[in-house]
Write a structure and sequence with these properties.
Layout (H helix, E strand, L loop, with lengths): L14 E5 L5 H12 L3 E6 L2 H14 L5 E3 L15 H13 L6 E6 H4 L6 H7 L1 E4 L6 H10 L3 E2 L8 E5 L2 E4 L8 E6 L2 E8 L6 E5 L1 E4 L9 H14 L8 H7 L30 E4 L3 H19 L10 H4 L3 H8 L4 E4 L10 E3 L19 H9 L3 E6 L2 H13 L5 E2 L3 H6 L4 E5 L6 E2 L3 E5 H5 L31 E4 L3 E13 L2 E9 L5 E5 L6 E3 L17 H29 L30 H8 L5 H13 L6 E3 L9 E6 L13 E4 L7
Parallel strand pairs: 1-14, 1-15, 2-4, 2-13, 3-4, 6-7, 13-14, 16-18, 16-20, 17-18
Antiparallel strand pairs: 5-12, 7-8, 8-9, 9-10, 10-11, 19-20, 21-22, 21-25, 22-23, 23-24, 26-27, 27-28
Helix pairs in contact: 1-2, 16-18
Length: about 675
Amino acid sequence: MSVLRLPPLPAASGKQHWGNLPGAALSLAIAEAASNAKRFTLLLTADSQSAERLQEELAFFAPELPVLHFPDWETLPYDLFSPHQDIVSQRIATLYQLPELNHGVLVVPITTALHRLAPKRFLLGSSLVLDVGQKLDVEQMRLRLEAAGYRCVDTVYEHGEFAVRGALIDLYPMGSTLPYRIDLFDDEIETLRTFDPENQRSIDKVESIRLLPAREFPLKKEAVTGFRARFRERFDVDFRRCPIYQDLSTGITPAGIEYYLPLFYEETATLFDYLPEDSQVFSLPGIEQAAEQFWTDVRNRYEERRVDPERPLLPPAELFMPVEDCFARLKRWPRVVASQQDVEPGIGRERFAAQPLPELAIESKASEPLGKLRQFLEHYPGRVLFTAESAGRREVLLELLARLKLRPQEVEGWPEFLSSDERLAITIAPLDEGLQLDDVALVAESPLFGQRVMQRRRREKGRDAGDNVIKNLTELREGAPVVHIDHGVGRYQGLVTLEIEGQAQEFLLLQYADEAKLYVPVASLHLIARYTGSDDALAPLHRLGSEQWQKAKRKAAEQVRDVAAELLDIYARRAARQAMRSGIRNSTTRPSAPASPSRKPRTSRPPSTRCARTCSPPSRWTAWSAATSASARPRSPCARPSSQCTAASRWRYWCPLPCSPSSTTTASATASPTGRCGSR
């Protein structure tokens, strides 16, 4: 269902400008155009942040439309580091899906689109399908995985890793959300299961899995031989002093090898080679300037680093597509430049009837904090959809709207809102901006709460955002206990410099039990955290190579899940029982203490009124407090008895108040005949 009046898309090699699309209206226009078109859509942005935001917004407005994101390596040109395996996994999975899609959207930054890529035949020819009942030779499988770039490890945690333990093979394929466990009976695949990399426990059975290469280049013997031949032909240097050449010759995949990718192939491809011939292009303003700036940065880094004889560099034109060639390729397809800025209507220029939302920020210090929102809802004639980032934030927003005596209908997403007749609705969506049309408005929580809303970018599961993160080496002192995410608690012994393959590199020196030493590159500082347990002198000292740390992590994770399950069970049972309102005579109620003459009483209601209010039937707050308590903190909220509920009828009232004693937040209560008040 479309809410925008879209103009006809340009013909082949034509170009249009769409303007006046503020906020999320830009994503809505692209989503509706891509959904209505019978062709594939390429969306080019000026930076990675815009690409990630647009991917989330497109998936919200068009949930049935395949929306892919081709991420950047997140390394600088000619860098000495390789991209993270999760990024490589997403890139390979996206490239593998593109030739099979005739309808959908690919969101990519223009700087990423300039990279030269592996030819299509590499990905298509390097994939492998495993089925239950298939014959499998373990040794041949090991060799094939290593040739595809997979790493043999003891325990599988990341993409591109595998482990062989007798008749079990653990494997984390590229492009897969979970690793797989292959259980063999003799030389036949008996079962295929997914498993959790955190606790290594099996989850579900599957019938088949598809294996993609672990890297964007081959590591087979023939490919390495070809790389060495092209390296010698391309560079006039002493190969014995080149770490890249020597490491690859000995079977080691060196860091930064991605910037020698053309040496693995006779010819490379570009992102445009993976797209269907009848694709269409949407682009945001500023991609031309971003591409030119990126090309300038590449040339500058090449000139700065080309003088190193031990690490010769390929010219920029061999690694990246020139800007002129890129936009020449784009001219083959119809293109629409969509902008939030206003444009003058004319031939090839379309102005949409969208408006930015007015100022709706909550003013906590004003006499009416929600005054701006109330005025907007009173004067706006159309329907309004509110969005929140999570279920907890949705409940907070519902409580605020309840102050205006508003009760929005909860919906699953944008399509359900459009198909309903409710004037006000609310849903969970990762949106930062809203939109306003003639008959439909979308209000995100960010404009309401401002800086108080926590941003969501790059939520990596293993990243610790607490106070124990070490952001600078000066925060560490020698002998202090530190925690390595993979090896456990050790002692920091300072910063040392080691010469690796003729190059000086800095490492953190950590000492473990039995005087074992671990050298951690400075670039991997994010793997180290402060020890925040007991006193430093009582901190444990783990042994390298043992399962002690892994067992401790698994046990802690199990305990957290057990506590969360118990809390959810307790609150679910409390929420399922209805409270009983009891008529309480004032004569049987204990008189309240007199108020201080220098302080205004908090409330003038009699105790019986407060008790009746507290012991009202369960409200929405109960379910929300149960969910947030179990997920936010592993402890039970304050469950205390109300002394004001002691009546002649000898009933007791359970008042689980997740608040301070001075709070008057309404909570649910349960009642049971007993002799005196008590708490669980």
